[in-house]
Amino acid sequence: MRLVMKFGGVSVADGKGFRKVGTIVHKYHERGDQIAVVTSAMHSVTNSLIDAASQAGRGRKDHVRRYVDDLTERHRKACEDAIENREILDKIQHVVTSTCDDLRNILLGIAHIGELTPRSRDYVIGFGERLAAPVLQGVFEDMGMKAKALTGGEAGIVTDDNFGAAQPLMNMTTLQVRQNLGPIMEDGTIPIVSGFIAQTQESIQTTIGRGGSDYTASIIGASIRSDEVLVWKDVDGLMTANPKIVKNAKMIDSISFPEAMELAHFGAEIIHPKALECAAKYQLPFRVKSLADPDRPGSTIVSEVKVKDGDVVKAITNIDDVDLITVCGASMVGTPRLPAKVLQILTDEDIDVLMISQSSSEESITLAIPKESGSRAQNALELSLLGSKQVREVNIETALSIVAVVGAGMKGTPGVAARVFATMAKENINIRAIAQGSSELNISCIIKKKDAAKAVNALHDDFELGV
Amino acid sequence: MPDLRIILVGFGVVARSFAEIVESDGESLARRYGLKPKIVGIADSRGAAIAQTGIDLKKALGSKKDNGDLSGLDGIYHEGMTGAQVIKEADCDVVVESTPTEITAAEPGLTHLKTAMMKGRHVVCTNKGPLALAMPALIELAHHNEVVLKFSGTVGGGTPVLDFAKKCLEGSEVRSIKGILNGTCNYILTRMANESATMKDALADAQRLGYAEADPTYDVEGLDTACKLVITSNHVLGTGLSIKDIDIRGITDISVEDVKEALSQGETIKLIGGVAGGKAKVSPERVKLTHPLNVSGTFNAICFDTFPSGEVTLVGKGAGGPETATSVIRDLLEIRRAYAR
Which of A68, A189, B12, B309 counts the highest number of beta carbons within 10 A? Predict the structure, then answer.
């Protein structure tokens, strides 16, 4: 089998983690599989780099020096804990130190000018992955495997120059990755690709957005035509509900890409939606595997899942802490530009809209907004719309949650919504707003936050999802 | 009318024929089409010449003929300079890539095309290798860099196969394509059918007449046909094929007896590149003697099965320096029109 294995920041949080990754990969390697590994940065490193970049942009050289010293030390320590062979250890620590020296120079350069451009920011925040890959290479070599660390760009991933969220040129990427990784893998070497980072055609480093390592795994998998992408997580797999809320939540064996994307949008960010979209396009099966229990089969995400009779709902998810903003005014009727204007105002403010509903009377538009940007959204809308005669008021309601039921089996099955509402009614929970996409993959309700746990549990029981 | 500044990467038969046309017919091109090509760089496998004011083509052609390289262009010649370096260093509007076809990694052509488009140059490519291997990627790169990538000369030589299918058949749905795309193979098979010549003798004659290369593998094993099939299928049917996706069988195991048996049934054997339902293959196939595809000698023929118009067959010479050079002119005109300033 040809496999891509992706390890997130939690799996490589420390030397022990790196070693564990080695043990897992070794097992598949022994079995005769051809493996490409994609790694994230060590846990929390990317966030710290983002912070360091902005500190440097403000000219804080002392901060930069301290930061890079700590980062070097952390990676050198991880090497010491994970690599036994003295020679390999020296080699990898040397790589770590010189990479960190590069980073220090760049950050000091930024601090010196006092300006952080998107391009230099992308260069800085990719260092976490660039440091993690060589450490893994050392661990693999220490365990007797042949391995080679590569940046995303070196692997062949080429993107546009939209720094911060660059888009891969997929045709060129698949061609180059196949050319670069194919021969190495045939030879029994394990390529270790730094996730999250890529480069433009001019070889300038870019990043492909948050959750980028999953995306990298998808891209590599699609390019080398792997049989499966294994995503190793600190959870057992995809669950029917958040196990912290629902005691008897159970692992989902198999789920389709559209369903998994719905789950991903609803906070269960096990795998980034962009990665799933790419995988779906290239019909590349994903499997979520448990780091704690590597022998468990995990959950598979595949193109087509047969819906069993009566198996209408796959999972119940919830997003806590949303605000509901209602823009109302009788004269909104027949003013088609207003909804566009409302969304434009929020887009300009960079505010994420989770859910939209408008009654057909057009008397009001209701928007669900994450709590942290709720009052900012209200402010922006009031400032822009209140003088306009069309809008009477902009209301905000806080301390709410979105609860969603997700499942491909809902499509064309009458009565699912009725069941959801009946369950809510039985629990005496008031529904503030509802949305169902015409794909019928999910029904979302907005309820009071204090009722959320109760609602999720009741729905989980009613659709008999538990063990 | 501004000059169209051109770099020639590869200075073989096609590029030299093109240079001759520019040298002798330049005025007519300007008068008839408003096209004023100015060659500002030429690279072959040994070195390169760059002159932003324009290279003396007579001198370049003479040097190539006498010395086998461009060293006669003293002052502007750089021994050992590569095509990629010229593309990076010389300022131009269009890069014409005509290095020899190579299909395992398609180099150095692929690097030439990537570098040219990255630098924002339009590209005319007569080298089949890069397109046969990486056509979807190259088209993506052209879009990304907002440049025109033309490759009329890769299929049919001077016969405008690709644009005919794409432009003239618009409105009809092309359902499948079948073609005789390699002149050498068709010459050999024609000699076998008409004169009962053996494969070996026919091939030797083809080499003597200059139709076939000293190493004919690439033709008789069907690889050249496969390259052209990939390019035609991707261009006309929108498939995303690479030469690695194709089943290829050449004509090496065809005997005079096979051909005779076919003839006795009113058919003949031709090397056919065909694509239908997204599946492409190259293999010797029987063709009815009365079918328009049954062309003789070094001719090429390509048959588009269209709906609702039925079969449309285009016949013409498939290769040759001057013929392919006219396709370069065609492509340059299109670039000139798209970017008239």
Answer: A68
